[in-house]
Fold this protein.
Amino acid sequence: IDKMSMVGLTLLAKLNRIISTAKHVNPQVPFGSVHIIFFGDYLQYRSVYDAPLHTDFSLPSKKKPGKLLTEKEIQQRVARSLILQINCVVKLIQQMRTEDSWYLQLLERLRHGQCNYDDYELLLTRVVGQPSVGSLCDSPWNKAPTLVFRNEVRTQLNNKAAIRNAAQLGDVPMVCVAQDTCNGKPIEDPILIKKLLELSDSKTQHLPG
């Protein structure tokens, strides 16, 4: 199975049940006694609407004490136990796709969240198919759309772009806090107000705050 980071615990549990059923073996035997090889980096992508494979169920839960687990939560724990039974791990340490040593070092720092300003400058020079482009800060490349895979990253980029554009124009950025209402009446509950203000703009029809 390739791109394992996109496989969540729920999906892995379903796969385990399907293989066990197809092989007509004891469901307690992992994957129906079929040898399974996983490829990928668990942190490369996030599973869609599912708990990631590295979820730690030993941490304190937000659920109320004494509340029973749902069938989905039970299956996720089963899948997590399957992951913990992996008895052979092969780590590939030689990079075969990238020959540029500077870019390779950048990728290694990026993986550990240790990028520096020189890495940023290097990324500005890497435009696929356009070797003549010196920097993404030059026109018209500085107006090109930026593609990201998370709404939180998009929001952060938009905020930084707004601050940068305001500085270039000599203006002061303004933050307009939403005045939420319920049935035409202002919401006064401080806890509810805090929750609403913390919502991502992807859940508020792209309205900030």
Summary: The chain has four domains: 4-84, 98-138, 145-174, 175-209. Residues 175-209 form one domain.
